[in-house]
Amino acid sequence: MRRIVYSILQYRHSLLRSEMFNIGLVFYFPDEGDKVIFYCSPGIKALANIYPDMDYQMLITYINYIDNNIKRGQVKHYSGLSIDMELKMFLRQCVLLEDATVLRFADPVIASNVDSGDSVTILKNFAKILLSFRDAGEHNQLRNLLLQ
Q1: What does the pLDDT read at residue 1?
Q2: DSSP per-residue letters across 20-84
Q3: Angle of helix 138-147 relative to helix 119-130, nearest 10 degrees?
Q4: What is the mean pLDDT of residues 27-40?
Q5: What is the pTM (predicted TM-score) of this model?
Q6: Confidence of residue 45 (pLDDT cuts 50, 70, 90)
Q7: Nearest CA-CA partner of 85 in 4, 1, 5
Q8: What is the SS3 assignment for 121?
Q9: Quick one: 16 exposed, middle or buried, by C-beta within 10 A (0-12, 13-18, 19+)?
Q10: CA gap 22, 77 in Å, rounded
Q11: Which of 40, 34, 39 is nearest to 86 (CA)?
């Protein structure tokens, strides 16, 4: 049995509005050497059209910060803690502090019994279902992330 844990990076332009866009995904592979990868949809440029007053460059800076923290960090294992909670702790302690900013990670979800298909196809399917914005080149980007 292969397990994948994922968390969705969400963008919320205003705390007063309930609109949220799923702009990125963190995948954690606890059974494959604790590999963690981050994928952000290139289609997030559309947010600048939806919210002309947003600071798009600042959003990109935050996304780069998140990506760097994920690449440098490592999920820690705690006795008695489930793998989804381990990812949640990693994201909160090492990647993006939870505060009132426009970005937040949703609670992680465990996808068990992911046995069919190669990793790129599986991740591509998750991206299709979960992200608000998609891009035609996402298949190649996901393949490159898995090969790192």
Answers
A1: 64
A2: -EEEEEEEEETTTTTEEEEEE-GGGGHHHHH-TTS-HHHHHHHHHHHHHHHHH--PPP-TT--HH
A3: 130
A4: 89
A5: 0.84
A6: confident
A7: 5
A8: helix
A9: exposed
A10: 27
A11: 34
